[in-house]
């Protein structure tokens, strides 16, 4: 049997899948605003299915850049894959989906926060050209260490004029 990895949009009817995944994956409980942002980001928030089992998700928020004259950037709120399904290309597929979509929509950059102790996540993002651009002390309130890195990537724009 061929294994398939498929992505599906998050909608009102399946947002519970995202909530269940987040509870299993992250030490943080997300509020209603997180889920509202995830739903409003349309194609930038996706559930990942491995052979029709929901095993991962990426949730993004589209932000206007300060003083950017209408420019927007993508903030990856969460990207996670259940432990037994890591290393199968699911996180890569989710991340590449957002990076490709960003390039097509002329979004200048993508960024996220990563706990300073999360070496696996830092290595994962560096593999895709992200760089640590800042450190925020005491970013997290209920987890140790409380510090995070701001990890970001400038997106090469797709030339629309050709």
From TrEMBL:
<feature type="domain" description="N-acetyltransferase">
    <location>
        <begin position="5"/>
        <end position="155"/>
    </location>
</feature>
<dbReference type="InterPro" id="IPR016181">
    <property type="entry name" value="Acyl_CoA_acyltransferase"/>
</dbReference>
<keyword id="KW-0808">Transferase</keyword>
<keyword id="KW-0012">Acyltransferase</keyword>
<dbReference type="GO" id="GO:0007064">
    <property type="term" value="P:mitotic sister chromatid cohesion"/>
</dbReference>
<dbReference type="GO" id="GO:0031415">
    <property type="term" value="C:NatA complex"/>
</dbReference>
<dbReference type="InterPro" id="IPR051556">
    <property type="entry name" value="N-term/lysine_N-AcTrnsfr"/>
</dbReference>
<dbReference type="GO" id="GO:0008080">
    <property type="term" value="F:N-acetyltransferase activity"/>
</dbReference>
<protein>
    <submittedName>
        <fullName>N-alpha-acetyltransferase 50</fullName>
    </submittedName>
</protein>
<dbReference type="InterPro" id="IPR000182">
    <property type="entry name" value="GNAT_dom"/>
</dbReference>
<dbReference type="Pfam" id="PF00583">
    <property type="entry name" value="Acetyltransf_1"/>
</dbReference>
